[in-house]
Description:
The structure is a homodimer. Chain A has 16 helices and 30 strands. By secondary structure, chain A is an alpha/beta fold. Chain A folds into four domains: 5-116 and 248-315, FAD/NAD(P)-binding domain (3-Layer(bba) Sandwich), CATH 3.50.50.60; 133-243, FAD/NAD(P)-binding domain (3-Layer(bba) Sandwich), CATH 3.50.50.60; 329-451, FAD/NAD(P)-binding domain; 454-563, Oxidized Rhodanese, domain 1. In chain A, helix 14 (476-480) links the parallel strand 27 and strand 28. The radius of gyration of chain A is 27 Å and the shape is globular. The relative contact order of chain A is 0.09. Chains A and B meet through helix 1, helix 3, helix 8, strand 21 and strand 22 of A and helix 1, helix 3, helix 8, strand 21 and strand 22 of B.
Amino acid sequence: MNNKKIVIVGGVGGGASAAARARRLDEMAEITMFEKGPGISFSNCSLPYYLGGLIPDADSIILKTPEQFQKQYNIKAIVNSEVVDVDPLEKNVRVKNTVTGEITKTDYDELILSPGAKPIMPQSIKGIDKKNVFSVRNVVDIKNIQKYLTDNKVKSVAVIGGGFIGLEVCENLVQSGKKVSLIEANSHVLGTIDDDFAQIVQKNLYDNGVDLHLEDSLIEIFDDHIRLRSGIEVKANAVIMAIGVSPETELAEKIGCKLGVTGAIAVNQQYETSVPNVYAVGDAIEVTNRLTRKKTKLSLAFPAQMEARDAIDHIYKRPIENHGVIGSQVIHLFDLNVASTGLNENDCQKNGFDYRFVTVIPQNRVGIMPDTSPIYLKLIFSYPSGEILGAQALGKSGVDKQIDIVATMITMHGHISELTHLELCYSPWFSTAKNAVNVAALVAENILNGEYEQIPVTKVRQLIEKGAFIIDAREPDEYANGHIVTSKNIPLSQFRQRLAEIPTDQKVYIHCQSSQRSYNMVRALNNLGYTNIINISGSYLELCEYEYFKDQTTDRQAIVTNYL
Amino acid sequence: MNNKKIVIVGGVGGGASAAARARRLDEMAEITMFEKGPGISFSNCSLPYYLGGLIPDADSIILKTPEQFQKQYNIKAIVNSEVVDVDPLEKNVRVKNTVTGEITKTDYDELILSPGAKPIMPQSIKGIDKKNVFSVRNVVDIKNIQKYLTDNKVKSVAVIGGGFIGLEVCENLVQSGKKVSLIEANSHVLGTIDDDFAQIVQKNLYDNGVDLHLEDSLIEIFDDHIRLRSGIEVKANAVIMAIGVSPETELAEKIGCKLGVTGAIAVNQQYETSVPNVYAVGDAIEVTNRLTRKKTKLSLAFPAQMEARDAIDHIYKRPIENHGVIGSQVIHLFDLNVASTGLNENDCQKNGFDYRFVTVIPQNRVGIMPDTSPIYLKLIFSYPSGEILGAQALGKSGVDKQIDIVATMITMHGHISELTHLELCYSPWFSTAKNAVNVAALVAENILNGEYEQIPVTKVRQLIEKGAFIIDAREPDEYANGHIVTSKNIPLSQFRQRLAEIPTDQKVYIHCQSSQRSYNMVRALNNLGYTNIINISGSYLELCEYEYFKDQTTDRQAIVTNYL
C-alpha cells in the first residue's frame, strides 16, 4: 500500500493541529500543509498583546516554524503558498507561490480545508482601503500596525467593533499610550454577554479613558479623523477594523463544497464536506450549537483544534463523536475579566426558550483576606425544567474558574439542583466556602421553586420614575455613603421592629449591597404573610455599576446619590 | 400551632448555617444556638493566616457576632454555653455556662448537633499538657499562640502533622520569621495527594526553609526542644499539634446516638441520628464517599454548610438528596498551590479499584505571555471503564480551576472522553487553548486505548540503577543544561535520521521536558514497528522536582546532573 498523502490548506490552529495529529497516527503519511501567509502555527489570540507591549517580539507569536515542523514531525509546512484550485476527481491541489507567482501541483488522498475566517472590511465604508486602515489577523498585520503607529507618531486610534478582538486591541492600544475611540454598532459591546453586564464592561472602558460610541457606525475614513453615521466626527489617525470575521469559503465553493445556512462550509459529523475526501475544520465551517441545536459560526481556538483532530481520526477510521459547541469565552480587559459560556438572555429569547436568570455578587475569596473583590455572576437556566443554559461573569479575579465550572455542568447536562451541592475546592485564599456558582444555584433554585419574586437592576430606574416603594436594607452608615435617591433605609437589623413602615397595599422592592440581606428580609416578610415583596437582584453593587456608565453618557438624572 | 423550637449545638460552620436557614424558612421559629467557646460563626479555615499577619486582626475572623445574629436574624446565639445533657424524651437540653458554671434548661422540638471535631492531643506524648503546646481550633487558640510566641520571643516552632492545617500553620509561621520544623509520621505530607506530587510539595517546604522530618513522630516535649521516635532532637520553644481531628461525639453518645464504623456520629440520608428529632451535621458526622461508597469522615466547610441546610430543609418537609462527598480541597503554600479532588492512587489501591493515571505538565497560560508557570496535573481514572476518579494539581496559579473542573466532571459521572472535548474558556491571558484538563484527558484516552506504554518518574531511579536505555528527546542545548546521568540525547528533531542508535532488543524509555515531544517520538517509533518503547510520564520537569528533594535529604547519588 502506498503512503497516505494528506494535504492541508491553512497552517494556523486547525491546520497545524491536523498535521501533527496525522503524524502521530501515521509515521509514513506524506503530510503537506500550505499556508497563504508567511507564518504558520501562530497564536492568533495573542496578536493584540504585541500592540500593548506585553509580548515584545512579534515573531515569538509564531509557536513553530516550518523548519521545526519538518525536523520534529517530518511535515512539509510551506508558507506563502495559496491553494488556488482543487481537482477533486484527480485529487490534486494547484498551489500558487504568492511571492514568485509560480503554480505547482500536489496530489492528495485526503484534503483538509482549514482556511479560517477573514476580517470583514465593508467596501461601503468610504476610505476603507486607505493605508491607515488595518485589521488584526496575523503577525504581519500587527507588525504593520505597530510600524505605522510608530512611523506616523499616531496618537489617536479608532477601533471599529466592540467584540473580543476589538476590546483586546483597545486595551492594548491604551496600554501603549494611545487615545482610543471604540465604535460599536449595537447597543452594547460584547454580543456574548447581556446588556446589564455589558454596562459594567463599558464603565470599565470609560474609566480607562476609552471614548466609546454605541449604536453608531463608521461611514467614512479620513487621514486624521473618521465620520460616523450619527454625523459625529472622531479624531483618529489610524483605524483598526474589528467588526467581525467571515469564513473563507472561496476555495471550498470553487470546488463544489456546499455551504450551510450561515454561509460557512457545511460538514457532517465527521467534518467531511459534500465533496468526497475533502474535510473542513475551524473558523470556516458551520457548527451546531449544543443547546439551541441550531447551526452557527464560532471562531474559537479550542473547537478548531478538536475538529482538526477529529477529522484526522476519522480518516484513520477511529470513531469520533461531534456533540456541537457551547462557546466558552473569556477576555481580559484592564483590571476586569469577562467570561461567558452557553446561552445569554438574547439567545434564549431568539430561540423562544422559557428561561430565568439570577445575578449574585459574592466575593472572590473570604472577605477578611486581603485583596478580595466581587464576582458578578449571572446564571441562566431553563424554566421550569432547571437545566443550566448559560452564565456570564465579571470581576478582577476568578471569573474564568466560575464560568469553566458552569461550562462543565452544561456539557454534562447539569441541573440547577446539582450545582447547588457541587463540591468545589475551598480555602480562604481561593474562594468563599460556597463558591460563586453554588450561591447562584441556590438562588436559582429558589426562583425555580417560586419562593420569592425578584427584579433585575435594569428595571430600577423605571421603578424610581414610577415612584415605587424601595427599601434599602443596609445599615445606616452604608446608606449614608450613597443610596438610591428615593429609597427608604430599613436595615435588616431593624425591620422586625419597623414593620409598620412597610406598606401592604403596594409593591415593595428591597435591596441591600449584594442581595444577601435583602433576600433574608424578603423571605421573612413573605413568611409573615406579605405577598407584595420583591427582591432587587444584583442590589446596590450591580446597580451602581450598571447606572454609572449611563450617568456619564446621558443627561438623565442620576439615581444613585453618590454619583450626583 | 406553637412556634417551632429549634436548638443548635455548635455555632460555627454547620451550626450557624442551620440557624440562618431555619430563619429563612420560618420567621416564627424560636431558634437558639449554643456555642461552648466565646465566638460563633468564625472562619476556621482563616485561622492560620492570623499567625502569618495576613489577617492582622484575629477578631475579624469572627464573621458575625451574637448581636448581629439577634438583630438580623432574630436568632439567639449564646456563647460560652456548653450543652452538657439532652433529654430526648422530654425534648430539652441542659446548658452549662462555662464562665459561671450555671446550668439552665431549654426545650426543643428539633435538635441539631454541630459540635465539630477536636484536635487530637495524644496523652502518650510526654509533655503534651505543657503550656508551650497548642492546637489551632478557634480564635482563642490563635490569639494564645501569638501571645505566647511574642511574650516568650519564640524563634523555633515545631509543627506536628503535615496535613492541610499543619502546612498552613508552617507557611504562616515562616512568613512571620520563625524557624519551623515539621514532623510527619507518614512517608509524605498531605495524605490527599500521592507520593510523587507530595515530593514537589516537600521540595517547596525545603526551599522555604522548613526543617522537615518524615516517617518520624513526636515522643516528648521539653521547654526548648522536642524528641522524636527516631531519637532525633529538634529545637522548638513551642509546639503546634496538627496531627488530625477527632469528631466531638461525647454528647451524642451520652444521649444514645449511634456512632458509625469510623467512630463519627451515624446519620441517615436526612442527617437524622438514631435518636428521634436529633440531627447531626458537620465534622462530627460520618459521611459516604460518592466514589468508593464507603463511610468516611470529612472536615471541610462546604459539605458542613450544605448538610446543615439540608437537615433544616428536611425538618420543614422539603425533599433533599444526599449524594455523599468527593472531598475537593486546595491549599496555598508559599508560591505553590496544591489542589485535589476525588480519589488518589492510595484510595484506589485500598478499595481494589483497577485504575490508571496520567501526569501532564502544561503551562498555566500561553508560553509567550509573561509570568507563565507549569501546572502539574495528575488525572486518575478507572480502567478500562474510563470513569474519572480523581485529580491532583500543583502550580503557582490556576490549579484550583483545573481541579474544580475535574470535581464537576466527577460529580456528573464524567468519562475521560467527555473531558477531552470539554469546551472551556480560553484566552492567552488565562490558559492554553487546550486547558490542562483537556491535555490530561487526551493522554488518558491514549492509555485507555492502549496506544502506548508509559512509566512514571517515580520509577526512573530504579531504571537508572538497572542500566536501562533512556533517551532524552530534547534539543542538545536543553540536554547540556542538565539531564539524567545515564541518558542518551536523541532529539525528536533528529531521531528519524538516528534510528540505528535506538535498540530493538531491550526496552527503550523516552522523556523530554514535559512529555510532549517524547510522546510524539514514542508514537512514531510504535508506528515504525518498535514494540519496546515506553514514555516517561512527567518527563524531566517532574523528575527534577521529584528527585530534588530526595537528593537534599538522602545520601543517594543524584541522578540528574544539574543537581550534582
